[in-house]
Amino acid sequence: MPSLDPGSPRVRFGAELRRLREAAQLSQAAVAARLGCTQTQVSRLEKATRTPSRSDAEKLDRLFGEADGVSFTRLYQRISARPSSPAWFRSWAEEIEPAAGVLRSWDPLLIPGLLQTEPYARHVFGMEPRTTPDEVRERTEARMRRQRILDRDDPPLVLMLIDAGVLRRKVGGPEVMREQLDNLLTTADRPSVSIQVVDPECLPGLAGAFMIAELPDGQPITVHADSPARGNVTSDYEIVTSIQERYEAIRLWAYPERVSLKMIEEARREWT
What we know:
By secondary structure, this protein is of the alpha/beta class. It contains 11 helices and 6 strands.
């Protein structure tokens, strides 16, 4: 699993939950019954691989009575106040994506976040309206942390479809683009990563970017679909089915991986 920041409020939330639960001689199942969730979800809270909800925090405060001055509600507020990513995205970046066994994605406009270099990501975030330098730095750092899942001993299988136009869309200048395309080629050498370039005439792909996460232990497939205002993270069967069908329709327009890598190399040579 990826390393976690021991100073983060989410890690402290989990550590305090485990400490107080064990001090009260309660099992994870007993706490789960009070939270209205599963034992696995409590385990993931303690390991900081699941982001707590406000309801979780309030119920834990009632259960433990803010023992030793610990307030789960205040810890939750610190978690939700972290500006590194929008609140709606945190459930994906901190809970869904790290647990996925297979990740499929489509992006018609940019290099996918999991494959972005730091200069590329910084420039993308820097162009957002009304974004401060501190927010750009924090969001860039958060994006780099997301990529740690690729370095795990058990990385997910990552299958990425990218519109051909992305290779020639200037983000940050020629040097940034050369480094970014070099990174695509290097990452594609990993046995767990597949990158395919999609013909720009692929009309089914114009609806927007999305990711599909296949989760272990019989958990439902979850998708994240982009929009200009906010993304949508859901496991709703109809929405997931629709996104999966669109992914397959786009994949029909994808060049074979060997051809795709040659296209990336060609575009890289043009950024001089």
